[in-house]
Amino acid sequence: MRTFVRVAERGNLSSVARELGIGQSTVTRHLNELEDAVGVPLLSRTTRRVILTDEGSRYYSNCLQVLRLVEQAAEEARNARRAAAGAVRLSCTAALGVMHITRLIFEFQDQHPDISVDLNLTDERIDLVREGVDLALRLGPLTDSSMKLHALGKSHRLMVGAPAYFSVHGRPERPDDLSRYETVIMSNVAGSDQIALSSRHGENFAVPVNGKLRVDHGLAAREALAAGRGIGPTHLWLVHDLLDNGRLEVVLEDYRPSPVPLSLLIVPERSAIARVRLLTDFLVAEIPKLPGIRPS
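The line above is the sequence of DNA-binding transcriptional LysR family regulator; the predicted structure tokens follow.
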């Protein structure tokens, strides 16, 4: 039944086999035995994809409820011995994960040594259910209303550059000056060819910018800024150490890019599981302590 559910969600036998650590022939056998037991076809197989039949769709919904009860029963048995154990899958935007979340996971596992964590670092908006993920840390506005949501706060940003760059090119004094400077551009962020800034007095600016270097990863942007390849907007948590040691400096301090919402998404069916709840509570308590993360 678990195999069937994962195949229904992923639509691919080989990916489910890799996920479960079994051979593809075993996945096929599980599906055939289940269909024989139920007495109707549950899946329709094409050369590229496996899709649910009408009977399979109804059976899938019931399977979710059955498997949830099975897991809750196991959790109750474990809780009776006061032991939280098992695996939690956490997805996180890559740069935040490398810079801060991995360290938090170490602390969490020191407190709960029987819980394993599968940390998936990606900047893609993955389907949590299809990928078998329990929790996801997301930067930016959200569109998936089917998940439970913890608003962790807002990630504040600022304009930075390297002292060596400013010594050659000077420092921008007003937002309009930015169009004359080389900008490190995030190619995977919509609208990154324009920098929007707001002043403390409520003025808003939208300045077109140019740059010879475009990157699709926050850590690459961090290295480019520190190397003096240009200036750019960045999250404080990404560069706080470089600001502290003088490798980067803040410019246009009276004008700031808009903060970005930071949220924790939870698959509703997984939220009551003890190990998922423990990691959720830990992240909700610890992430707002990171540099630049402030209450919404």
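Note on the example: The chain has nine helices and 16 strands. The CA atoms of residues 33 and 39 lie 10 Å apart.
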